[in-house]
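Project standup — Tuesday

K.O.: blocked on the structure for the chain from last sprint. Re-posting the sequence here as requested.
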Amino acid sequence: MLTLWIRRIAILSILLYLFFSRTDYTDADMFAERVVAHNTFSGLTLSFSIGSSANNNPTTKLFQLSDLQSGGFDLGALRVNVGAGSEFNYQLRAIRLGGDEAFCDSLQLKVTDRNLVELYAGTLANLSLSAVSTDVALRELVFIVSLDEQNEALKNKDCEFNLSFKTYRDNPDETGGINAWQLIHNSISSGS
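H.V.: unblocked you, prediction finished:
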């Protein structure tokens, strides 16, 4: 009885082997496809850095100023280095880190391009300047910080702030996506 079963299994195996070896592809596979039209994907290389205007070395400080008197001012300059590729937007803002709030609010700032065309004039605290990377005028920036106010309460005070350069796609306040962000630390103190 056992040999009969073995013969039947052997014959069935041979028949199945012949059947499967002669069969190419079956139609039993399931296949689903969805085509989504009008989508685009693009990428760019982002090379964004801040350098000294004199030698283009990376800069960590723009203003390290002490003993600023009423009526005094100081100059600083930066070069914004952008890489080749698609254009992107960037924003320059001042972020106060510490120090006397009244002193920080009384500091005046002018931002010009290399040809001294004024791009921003106002208080340091309100600095907000946006640009597109292809705008050549906004790649070389000259900063003039001054203390125009005569006020005894502003003596012997200090102000620490960062200049924030941030790239963005649609909105300067957006989060997520690919972006670059550079902070330049600054420190200004008034004299007696």
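K.O.: great, moving the ticket to review. Strands lie at 48-52, 61-68, 73-82, 89-99, 107-113, 118-123, 128-132, 140-147, 158-168, 181-190. Residues 11 and 182 are 77 Å apart (CA to CA).
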